[in-house]
Specification:
Structural class: alpha/beta
Strand content: 15-25%
CATH class of the largest domain: Alpha Beta
Number of strands: 22
Number of helices: 12
CATH superfamily of the largest domain: Ribonuclease Z/Hydroxyacylglutathione hydrolase-like
């Protein structure tokens, strides 16, 4: 089995792994400015997708240009998310750069889509493939690929701790080689319950003092986590941006089985007030003593561009960020300096700014816990900004580990 890394090797973004020039695992994009896409000219016989985040599915429609129609295998939530993200990408960026796909390719996704549940083996490009719950976002999967001689486990993104939406991954299928993500290989977090309690306490304090809380949150997974916490602790909240659509998507009948507690998310949706943004609605909401959960998570667009300027001047108000802020984003600048360029305007923020690590990735301890059963397997470290260092640390622990470089091909 030959494996070539077309993206996601020693980097985060544009994940893509090609097996024997036949089976493609993920095909994402890096949404930087300008965006970047997987290298090479992949022409697979079939595609298997781990989960529905842009860095794993963002380039999928390009595979359906011309006469190419490879079947695409994924879970139902991943298919739904990939379609939403593709249309959003086309809407946001179609006019600003040479977007590599059109609505025509997006429409073809439905023609080639084949959905599967966890634990159901299926055939793709002559390989036996099985999905296992990865505990990252609804529908996320570890992908086990077997050619009859070699069993390759592609972890995709995963989490080992329980979240509001999902249980942590418990799957550890036998494998000869493991392609393992390493996003937070140098981070150790407090228990999830402690982070959630600290976050809720902070929101409750601001509301008690009469302030407004803006919670910038990623639309997929993070928004729903925050809504569930608001419902669980009786906090009134609004939800704005793409997170509204994704919440409804997760509650579709075919997607409910991929949630830890579908009724919790249903109650959370009922507790939240959905914002349509018409006739100055956002400005009026920003004046209320409430919680506003909104995209974008890093403050580089979305309804947050209205809410943050509206609440920034009063120190009783709060901006509670729930995700990692990439260097160079307004969210990172705001957290580190107290000011940022928001919607083209440089502004000082007097409101309190806090950061909470609600990541859906395993931390260092989670990665090591996951890999413990694979002491005899070959570990290929990817999807991180310190892949080489983590591979070295694994070797020091007795693993056979390496960090493939972009474009490298290995034989397993």
């Amino acid at each position: 089995m030959d494996v070539r890394f077309l993206g996601g090797a020693r980097e985060i973004g544009r994940s893509a792994v090609l097996i024997d020039d036949s089976l493609l695992l993920d095909f994402g994009m890096d949404s930087g400015n300008p965006p970047s896409f997987p290298i090479g000219d992949a022409d697979p016989d079939a595609v298997v997708v781990g989960h529905g985040h842009l860095d794993h599915v963002g380039s999928i429609p390009t595979l359906l240009a011309g006469d190419a129609r490879p079947p695409i295998h994924w879970t139902p939530p991943t298919y739904d998310l990939a379609t939403v993200l593709a249309r959003d990408t086309l809407k946001l960026h179609g006019g600003s750069y040479n977007c590599p796909f059109t609505e025509t390719e997006i429409a073809r996704l439905a023609q080639v889509s084949e959905t599967h549940g966890y634990g159901e083996s299926f055939e793709a490009a002559g390989y036996e493939v099985t999905f296992f719950d990865a505990g990252h976002v609804p529908g996320s999967a570890h992908v086990l690929v077997s050619d009859g001689d070699t069993r390759l486990l592609y972890t995709g993104d995963f989490h080992t701790e329980d979240q509001q939406l999902l249980s942590g991954t418990a799957a550890r299928p036998d494998a000869d080689a493991v392609i393992c993500e390493s996003t937070y290989s140098d981070v150790s977090r407090p228990p999830r319950e402690e982070i959630e309690r600290s976050f809720v306490d902070s929101l409750e304090t601001t509301l008690w003092e009469g302030g407004t809380v803006v919670v910038p949150a990623f639309a997929i997974g993070r928004t729903q986590e925050v809504l569930c916490l608001c419902e669980a602790y009786g906090l009134e909240c609004y939800v704005d941006g793409m997170g509204k659509r994704v919440t409804e998507l997760f509650l579709r009948e075919r997607n409910r089985e991929f949630l830890r507690d579908p009724d919790l998310l249903r109650r959370a949706k009922g507790n939240a007030r959905f914002v349509d943004g018409r006739d100055g609605q956002r400005e009026r909401i920003a004046e209320q003593n409430t919680v506003i959960v909104t995209t974008s998570g890093m403050l580089h667009g979305g309804p947050a561009m209205t809410y943050v300027p509206a609440i920034r001047s009063h120190p009783t108000n709060k901006i509670a960020m729930t995700g990692y802020q990439v260097e160079g984003t307004p969210g990172r600048e705001l957290y580190e300096t107290g000011s940022a360029v928001i919607d083209g305007r440089s502004m000082r923020v007097s409101a309190q700014v806090e950061q909470y690590d609600f990541s859906a990735h395993a931390d260092r301890e989670g990665l090591l816990e996951f890999l413990a059963p694979y002491a005899d397997a070959r570990i290929l470290v990817n999807h991180g900004d310190r892949c080489e260092r983590f591979a070295e640390e694994l070797r020091e622990e007795g693993f056979t580990a390496e960090a493939p470089s972009l474009g490298e091909e290995l034989s397993l």
